[in-house]
Amino acid sequence: MGNVFQMTQVGNYAYNERYGGVTGPDGKGTWGGLLDNEADNFCDPKDLNSEDMVEFLELIYQEERPSSSLKPSLDLEFKKRARVIIEEYFTTDDIMSAANELKDLGFPSYHHYFVKKLVSMAMDMHDREKEMSSVLLSTLYAEFIDPPQVYKGFCKLVESADDLSVDIPDAANVLAIFVARAIVDEILPPAFLTKQSETLPPESKGIELIKRASKSYLSAPRHTENLLRKWGGSKNITVNDVKIRINDLLMEYIVSGDKAEARRCIKDLNVPFFHHEIVKQALILAMERRSAEGLILDLLKVVHEEGAINASQISKGFNRLIDHVDDLSLDIPSARNLLQLLISKAASEGWLCASSLRSFGKQVEDDIATKNFKVNATSIIKEYFLTGDILEVISSLETVKYFPAVAQPNAVFVKKLITSAMERKNREKEMASILLSSLRLPAEDVALGFRMLIESVEDAALDIPAIVEDLGMFLARAVVDEVLPPSSLDEVEVAACVIRESMGAKVLQLSRSALKARLSGERILRCWGSSGAGTMGSDINDVKDKIIKLLEEFDSGGDVREACRCIKELGMPFFHHEVVKKALVVIMEKKNDHLWGLLRECCSIGLITPDQMLKGFGRVADGFDDLVLDVPDVEEQFRMYVERAKREGWLNASSSAIAVDNGEVP
């Protein structure tokens, strides 16, 4: 029995010390995702400026009245059995037994009464029962009692403060501690205090306890530690001790890479109800230290497969991070996008069920830097649609996309480009596809841009009626143009948590159907017709044909100077990576180094720049899944040629390292 209490005693604390506990920016620092469940008629209590909060409170108060489907006798029976569960819990200290009995009792819409009864009974008892009540609430939160029911239960307690004071003289003070403790344990939002103060009479005990909770308990130095120990705290190991040990074992694992030792340390912690904290800290570490991402994901996958951390705790760890992603963005500007990428990878590897996660709340507003970037990107796109000057776009984009503090500028530009094109005619759509295939953008950034488009497709449909058809063709065209590998469609679907029968699902279905059709490549390349920019599309295809022909001619015994002249006359230096790519493919297919000499000459005279050379190698790496069908040893050959190119000075060490980090050159 003691062992169960020890595990759950630790597992109840979810205080986020990393972000300053309760007092995040604008008073919202530690709350997120309270109402991300299916209760769509609730507003988010973390929104201090929400005009719907009064309506929200009225709705939850109305819910307490027995519905016509729930007879008064059943109402009384629930309250009677709830009291028995609480009394048995205070006697046995068995958290799991209480949790299971509450679950078996049913009527989840009445769980707010359980919350209210638990706290009100503990208020008139010893510190032991008060501590046990806080532990139980934190353990039951989300998994056994829905967040709105916890919120509603505390609303009822505050509202009843005057009545409770009749039997419990210091009720306002005790209840203030319970409320402050709930905020520290992250089962109530800090905004709870502000919202409640707006609905209570000025002279009520409720106002008094709100002030005490805010000024006496949550504003005091070391308030978190004081609140956690107010009623005696944990009987054994403290939450802070566990968090420190988790951090130590993760840091040691990153240095050593010893999965067996890490698994042993996790087992020795003996806190299965707190394993979500391991997941949460590991994910934060992966976002802070990108080089350690692979190691960390491998560890989480292994401990999940071996049952050391169960699926529920894995999901809970991700959900805790989703709840605080906006706060995390203060330290890691791209935290939201990085977390979405981690979710995508974990789901694709099979150790995370994406459907079990809460949805990402929409960002309240873009920061100034991102807004400025979007304004500049829009200007660049509009000018491009007028002039068709791709080189000017490349030059302008290089100037603006590295604005400080702008998260994922490439993905933002892709989204803005395609959205702008979908609002225009076929000419601009064709121009957008051509520009997308001409820019030097990592495939993962382009995929992220498409994922952002799919996530917002429902809203955009109001302004773009044909968005499903247009976006589906843009996605298929990106695959045909080799801007994205075919596998990106599956990755985008998983990362965007696409729901069946949704507009996002229809977009992906249309893309897949278009790609599977007979002569799909030719049809997709002509999907925007021949109006206006059709000749530009033909130019790109003609260039690809010319590259193939000049390489074939050179491989048949042509002159290197003539081949270089033909490459120069293409007049598309930003497209020279295609020469590198196709030459490398031929070299590996035929196991003939004749074309290597052409690449050497192009590099030595500066015809093909190091950037284009690197991009060409990267495009080959992106196509491994398809190439392996014709060249089984493609990866082995490719690595050999990468090393050879580095020795000959085509790829310097720093460029290669960058490429590896971007996933372009393995």
From TrEMBL:
GO cellular component, one term: cytoplasm
Domain of life, per lineage: Eukaryota
Keyword annotations of the record: Cytoplasm, Nucleus, Repeat, Translation regulation
UniProt xrefs under InterPro entries: ARM-type_fold, Initiation_fac_eIF4g_MI, PDCD4
GO biological process: negative regulation of DNA-templated transcription; regulation of translation
Residues in the signal sequence: none
Gene3D superfamilies named among the record's database cross-references: 1.25.40.180
Subcellular location per the Swiss-Prot or TrEMBL entry: Cytoplasm
Keyword ATP-binding: no
Domain MI, chain residue ranges per copy: 77-198, 241-362, 372-494, 542-661
Family that this chain belongs to: Belongs to the PDCD4 family.
PANTHER family: MA3 DOMAIN-CONTAINING TRANSLATION REGULATORY FACTOR 2, PROGRAMMED CELL DEATH 4
Name of the featured protein: MI domain-containing protein
Taxonomic lineage of the native organism: Eukaryota, Viridiplantae, Streptophyta, Embryophyta, Tracheophyta
